[in-house]
Automatic annotation (TrEMBL):
<dbReference type="InterPro" id="IPR007029">
    <property type="entry name" value="YHS_dom"/>
</dbReference>
<protein>
    <recommendedName>
        <fullName>YHS domain-containing protein</fullName>
    </recommendedName>
</protein>
<dbReference type="Pfam" id="PF04945">
    <property type="entry name" value="YHS"/>
</dbReference>
<feature type="domain" description="YHS">
    <location>
        <begin position="45"/>
        <end position="91"/>
    </location>
</feature>
<feature type="signal peptide">
    <location>
        <begin position="1"/>
        <end position="25"/>
    </location>
</feature>
<keyword id="KW-0732">Signal</keyword>
Length: 157
């Protein structure tokens, strides 16, 4: 009986460790600040509906892939909640050019572009200028790289 109880405890500890590791790993594939806020608090829906980078409001939030997104209105929040894959930035909000290079870099919410109804962010305007030289090629390379690097911590790349 004593051996059985030890076995059950070991199984329980293993389960807790697996859950903790899974929760930690889930945040690796999304760029968010220390408070889990994505896109530095900018509204991901506004890029599509307003064609501009628009700061969100803490009163309107939604969580997706363990990151908190902020919105400029309840309507934008509701649209995001209805279809987060449509509005969330590609590559978890990491720099599209960086992902094409096999790296994860933070982004400037003002260095953005919607391509084929998908939101892409870049490190800054100068990096975006380079990315714009071959958008289809960089997206193709980044799509391939993302499957390999999305679960790797940025500082390990």
């Amino acid at each position: 009986m004593n051996m059985f109880i030890k076995f059950l405890r070991l199984v329980a500890v293993s389960a807790v460790l697996s859950i903790s590791t899974a929760a930690f790993s889930a945040n690796i594939d999304v760029s968010a600040d220390g408070n889990d806020v994505a896109i530095k608090g900018y509204d991901p829906v506004a890029y599509f509906t307003e064609s501009k980078a628009l700061k969100g409001n803490q009163a309107f939030t939604a969580t997706y892939k363990n990151a908190i997104y902020q919105f400029s209105s309840a309507g934008n929040r509701d649209a995001f909640k209805a279809d987060p894959e449509k509005y969330a930035p590609q590559y978890g909000g990491y720099c599209a050019f960086g992902v094409a290079m096999g790296k994860k870099f933070e982004t400037d919410p003002n260095a953005w572009k919607v391509v084929d109804n998908k939101l892409y962010l870049n490190l800054d305007k100068s990096v975006q200028k380079r990315w714009l030289e071959d958008v289809p090629g960089y997206i193709n390379t980044a799509d391939t790289n993302w499957s390999t690097i999305k679960t790797v911590e940025a500082d390990k790349l």
